[in-house]
Amino acid sequence: MANPILGVFFHWLGGLASASFYIPYLGVKKWSWETYWLVGGVFSWIVAPMTLAWLLVPDVFAILQAAWAGSPNAVKWAYFFGAMWGFGGLTFGLTMRYLGIALGMAVALGYCAAFGTLMPPIFDGSIVDIVGERSGQIILLGVAVCLAGIAVTGMAGMSKESELSEEEKKAAVKEFSFVKGILVATFSGIMSSAFAYGLAAGKPIGELANTALLEHGRSDLWQNLPVLIVVLWGGFTTNCIWCVILNIKNGSGREYLALQCEVPANAEDGEEQAGLAAENEVRTESVPMMRNYVLSALAGTVWYLQFFFYSMGQTRMGKYEFSSWTLHMASIIIFSSLWGIALREWKGTSGRTKTCLAVGLILLIGSTVVVGWGNFLNAPSGVGH
Length: 385
Prior knowledge:
Blueprint: H1 4-20, H2 33-56, H3 60-70, H4 72-99, H5 101-124, H6 127-132, H7 134-162, H8 166-172, H9 178-192, H10 194-201, H11 203-215, H12 225-250, E1 260-264, E2 282-286, H13 289-315, H14 324-342, H15 351-378
Antiparallel strand pairs: 1-2
Helix pairs in contact: 1-13, 1-14, 1-15, 2-12, 2-13, 3-4, 3-11, 4-5, 4-9, 4-10, 4-12, 5-7, 5-9, 5-10, 5-14, 7-14, 7-15, 14-15
């Protein structure tokens, strides 16, 4: 049942989860990136999706079997697009490496928002109906406002970087390359938007789940949870292969079980790198194994909650559920920026930069209101149900 106001609220919760998930990783010590990313990923892409779907959707594994038997292409395409989304996530880090966080985030998420929102309705032909209806036009206006907000927020980040000293700039973006960065950001943004395609391709799975939910008297809010299982299987495949390759290449595979690691003897707290030994003197330190696993599991679970709430919000957006992706992207940037303010990342910047950030946030918040309003106008009798 359509209820765009509730849908926007769920998308905001998803954006908050996405903006917050990395914080537990900051407490992981003496593990390489690929180690804690894969441990967290097991919970993000396997444990949390399957557990919540099992708890909330009756006979979820029977539904997946039925989907494979009746609509194998839906399962295959959902998995495929999940794997493609995985490539986008992996290259997102390269975008930050070549462009810096501010510009890289703006470019990559701009592409992701545009392609993830507009390509599904263009592909299935529904864009014609969207353009021809007042509510659809308002939603497209909201998408445009969202893209403008992303651009202005990126400008604020660029302004912040320009106010750094030359030494700070070099420390922030050591390998700055505009050409490489734009190419990687384009690839990352387009590939990351494949998640939206995977959800669209998996609709037959969601329809089976919806039927099962109604038969058991449960809420249709959970109908997309089985779709998430398949899409995230694809994402897990890509990320797992890459992390294992890095584990082998960097010799970090032992970190999953090692209770101790070697660090340079002269390394200060916070500067050590797991498994890295100085050429001459090293010292042995204990690894907080239990804490690392708990924090990685927490980070992975919080990461999954972004799409848990996304899938719930999508069921309440009504006819124009394609707009969910815009709401998701806008919410991520809003809460990411707010975390940056809370962590005092903008301390010392000029009034012009802070004003630019404020304008960007206002545009992003406004875009969620406009998109929600457009969906609200299309709800039955003009109200949510």
